[in-house]
Amino acid sequence: MKLKERIEYIDKKLNELYPDPPIPLDHSDPYTLLIAVLLSAQCTDARGNRVTPALFDLANSPQAMAEQSIDKINSIVRPCGLAPKKAKAILGLSKILLQKHDASVPNCFVALEELPGVGHKTASVVMAQAFGYPSFPVDTHIHRLAQRWKLSNGRSVTQTEKDLKRHFPQNRWNQLHLQIIYYAREYCPAHRCHGLSCEICKTCFPKRRKKIFTQRS
Question: Which CATH architecture has domain 3-20+137-216?
Answer without folding.
Answer: Orthogonal Bundle (1.10)
